[in-house]
Design brief:
Blueprint lengths: L7 E2 H8 L3 H9 L7 E2 L5 E3 L2 H14 L4 H8 L5 H32 L3 H11 L3 H16 L5 H8 L9 H14 L2 H18 L11 H14 L10 H15 L5 H14 L4 H12 L7 H17 L1
Antiparallel strand pairs: 1-3, 2-3
Helix pairs in contact: 1-2, 5-6, 5-9, 6-9, 7-10, 9-14, 10-13, 11-12, 11-15, 13-15
Length: 310
Amino acid sequence: MDDGDTLCSIGELARRTGLTVKTVRLYSDRGIVTPAERTGAGYRRYGPDAVARLAFVRTLRELGLGLDAIRQVVDRELTLGEVAARHAAALEAQIRLLRLRRSVLTAVARRGPTPEETRRMHDLARLSAAERAHLVDDFLDAVLDDVPGRDAIRRSMTPDLPDSPTEEQIQAWVELAELTLDPEFRAGVRRMAASYAEHLEPAPPVPPRPDVVALVRDRAADAVASGVPPRSPAADPVVAALTAECARALGRPDDGGLRRQLVRRLEAANAPHTDRYFQLLAVIHGWPPPWRRAPVLDWTVTALRARIAG
């Protein structure tokens, strides 16, 4: 048989293309490859172009295209580029869904939640962008109320999940969303915001004075990292520098009253799970890990209480 000119049977075409006779017959029935003629007995005969056409079809099938789309391409009803773009978009949607499912299952395997918690995790992961924004807005409205400077605080606490998040970002979003629904966490953030507002009263001066939490971070973080015991004499210069700076910032004497005020402020600022919230926020946004508030605030409160008692 001459490979260039002779027509071939469906069996020969299947052998040349590595497809089954059943598959070639299906493609032929769907109009993807058509016989050049039929014999008197009704058997299909295919021309030389059928081999190249089926090789192309096989490639498209391996890429995941459906038979209807393939027929439109081979019949030139649509360009290959148009069909490929549509298929790529569909695959992207599938990938996002699979990544979401995998992230939820990974979290379930790690945390061992109850059936109700598993359902809630799945529901939170499936929220649309608008639904996610509504959930966060509801949380921030509830905890910030009419706190001065609330717009800036909102911006610093609002997660913005990317359009194509990683599995880690999805898991971070689900855990963060669960935190926003936790009554204990809400109450802690509400106390923290109220303490911040109290710190600003009366109306903040111009330029605004620094918040004592930021001053504590700048003054005490190195002592905590170095393992300085908060009640030891080695902590004295750290505490003295901190209280002196806070006294200047607040415009009041550096005395026992100031130390007690700082203790109240720092305890309110050290709401449970706050560190975790900002860690998750950093993962969602792709930011560097934030400083851990709890160890520094705990250290400072202990150091201040020891010196108040002394």
